[in-house]
Amino acid sequence: MRRIYQNSLEAMSKSKRNKFNSPSLASKSEKIEEPIRLDKDGNICVRILAKPGAKQNCITDISIDGVGIQIAAPPSEGEANAELVKYLSKVLRLRKSDVVLDKGSRSRNKIVLINKDSITTDVVKELIQREIGL
């Protein structure tokens, strides 16, 4: 019984070692995504770290995790989401219909899609940095 148990542990550790040491899996996990990027359709994806319930709307920072935005609306009944879209459209000088909440309607981590025909990623980064004051 003991021998079977030891052999099964050795077999499991070898299979795990092969999985994690393969170059294809390591390269996928090391891939770092930008907070502002293009999706497969060419639309601009902006990763948002929303902070609802603030005194005023403002962009706090840009990091690898996303663009930190304080929202002056409570996180109930979608009020903060609507305010987020309204504020981003104002900062980016776009129509509200060009800015759409794609994912994260009930989370602080959100993905906002911006119409590909309305603006470029470089302009989005520049306008967000200008709003921060960098």
TrEMBL record:
Coiled coil: none annotated. GO terms for cellular component: cytoplasm. Pfam families: DUF167. PANTHER family: UPF0235 PROTEIN C15ORF40. InterPro entries: DUF167 (IPR003746), YggU-like_sf (IPR036591). Belongs to the UPF0235 family. It comes from Glossina morsitans morsitans (Savannah tsetse fly). Transmembrane segments: none annotated. This is Uncharacterized protein.
